[in-house]
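Input for the complex:
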Amino acid sequence: MTVRTRFAPSPTGYLHVGGARTALFNWLFARKHGGTFVLRVEDTDEARNTEEARQAIFDGMKWLGLDWDEGPEKGGAFGPYYQSQRTAIYDTWFEKLVAAGRVYEDGGAWRFRFERQPVTMHDLVCGEVTIDYTDESNTPDMVVKRSDGSYVFHFVNVVDDLEMEITHVIRGEDHLMNTPKHLQLIAAFGGKAPQYAHIPLILNPDGSKMSKRDAGAAVADYPRQGFLSVAVVNFIALLGWNPKTEQEIFTLAELVERFSLENVNRSPGRFDLEKCKWVNQQHLLDVSVDDFAIASRPFVEAAGLPIPENYPAVIAAVKDKVRLFSDVPAAVDFLLKDDFSYDEDAVAKVRGNAAAGGLLGALATAFEPISDWSADAAKAALNETAQAAGAKPGQLMFPLRVALSGRGHGPDIGDVLTLLGRDRCVARVRHFAEKLS
RNA sequence: GACCCGUUCGUCUAUCGGUUAGGACUCCAGGUUUUCAUCCUGGCAAGAAGGGUUCGACUCCCUUACGGGUCGCCA
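Predicted:
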């Protein structure tokens, strides 16, 4: 049996992390087993569907790297993949229910008559769960066809999973209580039920349900914030699933190799943006300087900073010090423009050393005549200046850093010296020395 | 309210009856780096509560509490 999974979003809003993770697990499971991953658009709610939402979902999946084998833009033997285009198919399946006497009219709508008995499901994640359908007041017969002739979710979802020969339905736990309904429908059709796996939901940091407007909820925000898609995938994969190793940073291929439904957790997880950023930083370490420069450039431009010719060299100096591409502008601004601001705490720290001003003044003078400027030449000058004043070279490093960058943290001083060039270094050191006095 | 699912450091998690309850993020302290970051070392920090079962329970059972989910002519 070939594995066939599907992701079936309704285009009523942007792709959020919960949906993305559902898509991811389906994708991973299909890839892991050499199966087929289907994308099906559940656009039966005409009032709420929008073209923008549909596009946002496609864009989100593409950004995450979750390519589908069948579905919109791709085709396949089980199309069409928009439910709004499958009415004729639903009509024939509905007739089966009519013929079997399992539906009855109620107020213009058609209800499916449940078998009044306990329904047991064997969920790949939740295990065996039994819901009692004996009491009709708790489980009223469900509407499958609305009075306007359209079909409801439960019906089309089940029909399509059958029609498209879906073998594994991996979906959010919010669907667990729907499953008996679906099982009853499948039984009425005489169909073979897919295997179900209900995965726990993702919560906000405070434990509340994560929904729209919550920080980190929209997948589209991640590229805007400068996340790498592989990092986001890595992070959400580990939220509710664990690979049973202490390794935490994975490539897509490694996730595929290790993924299994048995290791999906049962309890909902909270979304920790800090850890997500850390995961991103770890992945950033593997990005080449050139790729990093290309990816970070839009963020730097958006901040209104000029892009110098030696931009890749600038990036090389800060690459390993940022967690997101969006951190880059603030990390490089002093390298790209002269009117940067000084961090008051760092300046105060330098003022704590009464000799700093004089030393920096002397340093500027020592820098000035260097014709063959380099980090080594500058450092040699720094050592001489310090020795001449009877100070340790190390004492000058921090003041120099603040003089050149305006802050106490940043790239390697040697890199800064090189990138800035002699004249700017002299000017900045002199200016800062005067500022101190 | 009824019905389902769940509950290990603040967060993500390991443990599948016997462990000093391990790792990661965050935070703190040292070390390395003449500077910053990386990195290394160390530290803080957990089995919701109460009953059982057992020689022995985080692990199995029950109850309670708490959290989440579902109860639509939404999906």
